[in-house]
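Residues determine shape. Next comes a sample protein:
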Amino acid sequence: MSERGNRKTQIGVVVSDKMDKTVVVKVDRLIKHSVYNKYIKRSAKYKAHDVDNSCKTGDRVLIVETRPMSKDKRWKVRQIIERNA
């Protein structure tokens, strides 16, 4: 994989698994407000390809950037870090 370049990775929580071979992953990040110097939580939702339909809602997953697979899907689930109990 190193010869193709570094791909972006994100860690997030699965919020929806209702689509076939697709999950919606919510990724949280902290940004610092420029005026008030307070940290604010921002989140983004990404649609990710799940080949085996193995991810369930609440799972913590690692997603990696990949080629566009559809209009909205540009990420792929690499591994499930933590299962939802």
